[in-house]
Amino acid sequence: MAKNPATFQCSECGWTANRWVGRCGECQAWGSVAEASAPKLRVGASAPVTAAIPINTVPLDAARAVPSGVGELDRVLGAGLTPGAVVLLAGEPGVGKSTLLLEVAAQWAGRGRRTLYVTAEESAAQVRLRAERIGALGDNLYLAAESDLGTVLGHIEQLGPELLVLDSVQTVQVPGADGVPGGVAQVKEVAAALVRVAKQRALPVLLVGHVTKEGTVAGPRTLEHIVDVVLSFEGEVGSGFRTLRATKNRFGPADEVGCFEMVESGIREVADPSGLLVSHRREPAPGTCLSVTLAGRRPLLTEVQALVAPSPSPVPRRISHGFDGGRLAMLLAVLQRRARLRLAHKEVYVATVAGTRLSDPGTDLAVALAVASAAVDQAFGEPVIAFGEIGLAGDLRRVPGLERRLAEAARLGFRLAVVPAGSGVHAPAGMRLIEVGSVAGALAALNLRFGKKGSADGFTPFLAVARTGEGVA
Hints:
Blueprint: E1 8-10, E2 16-17, E3 33-35, H1 71-77, E4 86-91, H2 97-109, E5 115-119, H3 124-134, E6 141-145, H4 149-159, E7 163-167, H5 184-201, E8 205-209, H6 222-226, E9 229-235, E10 241-249, E11 257-263, E12 266-269, E13 288-295, E14 298-310, E15 318-321, H7 325-338, E16 346-352, H8 364-376, E17 385-386, E18 389-390, E19 396-397, H9 402-411, E20 416-420, E21 432-436, H10 439-445, H11 462-468
Parallel strand pairs: 4-8, 4-9, 5-6, 5-7, 7-8, 15-16, 17-20, 20-21
Antiparallel strand pairs: 1-2, 1-3, 9-10, 10-11, 11-12, 13-14, 14-16, 18-19
Helix pairs in contact: 7-8
């Protein structure tokens, strides 16, 4: 009788095949297909250790979040660190993951709670140097340089900490497991063991995770499923501004953003980041426009800058930094077709201040106005705040949370805002609203704010510039 062929299964998505392949045919993951183990015997019923109880009688005190001492981290987590929660913090190399968690550990230990910081990448002396630099020394903060999971669990049993920080989960190894440290099997075993300890001891655990060149968390996809919270620590090279975002959160919202700034003494919280996301100049400059985005419950003022220049190449370049390139191409096509801006033979560059990333469609109008201002090389007469999503027909669509956006702009001292028609909002005190229904209407409404020296009134309307052919057809 012929022998049944072995079955191979993907550890990421469960896809099966009758032979080994290097890449999963379903999720396209490399190195995740391995021979599936033989089916186990049917498990019989056993007597439960603890009887089930009504849900309304389950005590809540053991699961209430405790503030970590870092307000921006607590904002992203929801209320703080929940006992028994496992938090995975991922980010690019050098972004400041270890510095942030060392600061959290110091704040936690400073309140009299025993904290264990396990480093599997650096020596204890290296971590001590960083702790001295950022002022994170304390009697209740214990440090261990270990890369063996059994030894880490032994430290937990011996010390009995109230917070565990592990840097990083990809460098800890299990001697009995297959693969090398950082591999699929090793990472799964390490994460599963730490999750069990966290739930049994009601111990909050903070894990540092590496990312791949595509920006995803390194290791198996199941790592993100078994942890309770997945945080992403982001920042541009050369910029001290850092953002902390939650991509998964079982205890709070998953759209909040925490803001930090890297300084010489470590990492500093930024409770009001709007000042870091705009340029400080006395007069408006050509090719700039402002908008307010919503990051969870927090409104953030953002400045968009654009530059339009003649192209020496028959194929002009369109480069965006902090804004989706495909959406920029769509906005340029709308400006070309609906607003009669001649951009087909011009190079267009769009960037945001401080390296922020704009994914909010409500900032479309601000990008379009910045490009139009750069095309005619004229600045607005005063700072303009613009909101609105632009459709392919050139129409403006309403954006959510407009009242909160306008309130933030008014708080920062801005007095003129362009909003989609029919938004049904009232202007804050001291602010004037211009309601328009299309991107062409927005340009027409701001005619007197496209200044051109030498005219009788100090300004030349936008349509007059169009007749001269300066960047407009």
